[in-house]
Specification:
The complex is a heterodimer of chains A (327) and B (340).
Chain A lengths: L1 H18 L11 E7 L5 H17 L1 E7 L4 H13 L4 E4 L7 H10 L4 E4 L11 E4 L2 H16 L4 E7 L5 H14 L5 E8 L5 H13 L5 E4 L5 H10 L13 E6 L2 H9 L4 E4 L2 H16 L10 E3 L3 E3 L17
Parallel strand pairs in A: 1-2, 1-3, 3-4, 4-5, 5-11, 6-7, 6-8, 8-9, 9-10
Antiparallel strand pairs in A: 10-12
Chain B lengths: L1 H9 L8 H18 L2 H15 L6 H26 L7 H19 L2 H25 L4 H20 L9 H8 L1 E2 L2 E2 H19 L1 H11 L1 H6 L4 H27 L11 H11 L10 H20 L4 H28 L1
Antiparallel strand pairs in B: 1-2
The chains are: A alpha/beta (327), B mainly alpha (340).
Chain lengths: 327, 340
């Protein structure tokens, strides 16, 4: 008796869900694009989203924003939700560059084009279009800048690594290390794996400054990691502008507002501004074109846009080229 | 007319019951089911409400999504349920899922064998669970401390093995099976459901299951009843480790990759689902059917919030609030049951 009633209640619940079938929400109206973000916990993501929203408005596109909160499983579920909602295309900054391959496959099975931005998937020939900066080149450029600043002077460096499960994290780290490896005067004294989070940076920097009070430089994979760097330097009385004997050379990638401010004020010696405006625009346009059946040639499928180096000497004349400096 | 009404009320059904008595028994049975499964009416109401108000919820593809999102959480919740039933807790579940998935991925890379990968995942989980069990059952370390330490150690091992990177390029047969459907039902869901059913049967129909309940509700009384509480505790943690390993394997089927942080975000959902469904943190009360309803509610709510455009922090607020309300309700219902 009880068993029958349990079965009936469960059936009633599912029947009620199955009885009313609605059409996907984006069947009519403006073209809809699913924007699947890995996280929102950094100024660079904030900057990118603002650009996407304004470009979507300009292009007449409806954005369905999803934020995965640094969780690959959640991102997969959100992509599934977008697919079920019948979006015209998906633009994604993947959290896990291996797991995203399955997201791409499922989207393709539903005839939905998949575009990646900023973080490339493990196999770029699976995705319909990828656009981003060249993280390896950014790392090499930062190394080049450091070498130009220190010359032959023995210099100890701390490397604040991004997430090594990411294309950007790996590329920026490898590029920098390859750039300094032939310079015996530059010594990497600490590598701090941050997973793009500022929390490990403070303790890592404090330990590094404790062990190496004569620390000469800090290379940061992201401007989002800078605030704890400044805190640690202040504690060690090493927070000083360029030209001061206590100054520590700081080089960082992104070009966000705090990076721009630090370079403008002279606390940071060089930044590498990500070409977010170009990236967001080209990703959205690619998704729209692909959704309308237009093909992208294989040779054009991956578009790497160089970052822009800005220094205390050049930032004033760069106008809005550095996205973090835009008022 | 009055005569026909009276005739109907007094009509004796083949079962021997009058119409009114039959209705009363149906209502009583319903109430006792709802008391045992307090989330069932919530699920039914949510199902109806979301189908009407949320565009895109009650579609085949979305229901399939919900079924695809369930299995990893469901198997992990099964694991946590049996641990909670003995009055324990296991914080290492997320780290075990991640680490076992990495071990399985490495084995599949080197051998190409999915079966070996599965055995590795489950075996790794069993070893971790057994270590937890040894520490808690024999060394008498507090479950919170033991599993917290295990969580940190296992997670660190995962990072050591991979350098923080994901492990992908898994055998294509594994990845395709993660997308397979049987009669429209995702294959991974059927696996998760089968595990939940087996655990439910073990808990409800075996002496081992009964021993788990006894140990959780009153370890001293269980001992005097002839239950070897130490062995039961060890077996429960070992079994739950194996289930976490299986959850790690399902994770790989679903995502096509293994990562050291695979299970980290799941801890809140796992414990929340078990507690929300009515499994008590103090032990001795609860079960797989209840945990299943908790799991289903969390997944359905997350799905609805995503469709509505809410962000993951909104989802956490909702789950957190539900957990508080659900726990309070569970405690109240439990007290009422005891008074009856």
């Amino acid at each position: 008796m009880v068993g029958k009633i349990v079965k009936m209640s469960i059936a009633a619940g599912f029947a009620s869900m199955g009885a009313i079938v609605s059409t996907p929400s984006f069947a009519d109206g403006p073209i809809s694009i699913c924007l699947s973000l890995d996280k929102m916990s950094s100024p660079s993501r904030d900057g990118q989203v603002k650009l996407w929203r304004s470009e979507a408005k300009e292009l007449g596109v409806k954005l369905m924003e999803q934020v995965a909160g640094e969780d690959a499983q959640r991102q997969a579920a959100q992509v599934d939700t977008c697919i079920a909602q019948g979006v015209a295309g998906i633009v994604s900054i993947p959290w896990d560059y291996e797991a995203v391959l399955q997201d791409i496959e499922r989207a393709h099975a539903a005839n939905i084009p998949f575009v990646t931005v900023d973080q490339a998937p493990a196999e770029t020939d699976t995705v319909d279009f990828h656009t981003g900066a060249d993280p390896y080149a950014d790392g090499r450029n930062a190394a080049r800048r450091l070498i130009a600043l220190v010359g032959d002077k023995p210099t100890k460096v701390v490397d604040l690594q991004g997430a090594l499960s990411h294309f950007n994290g790996q590329g920026r780290d490898k590029g920098f290390k390859d750039g300094i490896k032939d310079h015996a005067n530059i010594t990497l004294v600490a590598e701090i794996p941050t997973e793009w989070r500022p929390e490990p940076v403070l303790s890592g920097m404090e330990n590094a400054l404790q062990a190496h009070p004569d620390l000469g430089a800090v290379y940061s994979a992201s401007d989002g990691l800078l605030p704890p760097v400044w805190s640690a330097l202040k504690k060690a009385n090493r927070y000083a502008k360029a030209g001061d004997p206590n100054h520590v050379i700081v080089l960082s990638i992104d070009g966000d507002p705090q990076g721009c401010q630090a370079v403008t004020e002279g606390y940071m010696d060089g930044g590498y501004a990500q070409p977010f405006a170009a990236m967001t625009r080209s990703a959205l346009e690619a998704a729209i074109n692909l959704s309308k059946g237009r093909k992208i040639e294989s040779k054009d499928r991956v578009s790497l846009i160089p970052s822009l180096e800005y220094t205390p000497g050049t930032v004033a004349g760069m106008g809005n080229d550095v996205w973090g400096c835009v008022k | 007319m009055a005569n026909s009404n009276q005739h109907r009320e007094n009509f004796v059904y083949p079962s021997g019951l009058a119409h009114r008595e039959r209705l009363g028994i149906t209502l009583d049975a319903l109430m006792s089911i709802f008391r045992y499964l307090p989330l069932l009416p919530v699920l039914i109401v949510c199902g109806i409400l979301f189908s009407i108000t949320i565009d895109g919820f009650a579609t085949g593809p979305n229901l399939q999504n919900i079924m695809r999102q369930l299995p990893v959480v469901l198997v992990a919740v099964a694991r946590e349920t049996i641990v909670l039933l003995i009055g324990g807790i296991d914080l290492s579940i997320g780290a075990t899922i991640g680490f076992s998935s990495i071990c399985g991925a490495f084995v599949m890379h080197s051998t190409g064998s999915i079966a070996l990968g599965l055995l590795t995942c489950v075996g790794t989980g069993l070893i971790i669970g057994a270590l937890n069990g040894l520490g808690i059952a024999w060394a008498r370390i507090q479950p919170f401390i033991m599993t917290f330490g295990m969580m940190l150690t296992v997670r660190a091992l995962g990072f050591l093995l991979t350098g923080g990177r994901s492990v992908g390029r898994l055998p294509s047969a594994l990845v395709h099976s993660g997308q397979m459907k049987m009669l429209g039902i995702p294959f991974v869901f059927l696996i998760g459901l089968a595990v939940a059913v087996v655990i439910g049967l073990v808990l409800g129909k075996t002496i081992f299951g009964q021993s788990i309940y006894l140990t959780g509700s009153n370890p001293r009384a269980a001992k005097f009843s002839g239950v070897d509480v130490t062995k039961i505790t060890f077996k429960v943690y070992t079994l739950s480790g194996g289930l976490a390993g299986l959850a790690g394997f399902l994770f790989m089927m679903r995502l096509g990759a293994a990562t050291p942080t695979a299970g980290d975000p799941l801890l809140l959902q796992i414990i929340g689902a078990a507690v929300l469904g009515g499994t008590l943190l103090s032990g001795g009360e609860g079960g797989m059917l209840r945990s299943f309803t908790g799991c289903l509610l969390i997944v359905v709510l997350n799905n609805c919030l995503e469709i509505m455009g809410a962000q993951f922090w909104d989802q956490m607020i909702v789950i957190g609030a539900l957990l508080a309300v659900g726990s309070a309700m569970g405690t109240w219902l439990n007290r009422r049951r005891k008074m009856e």
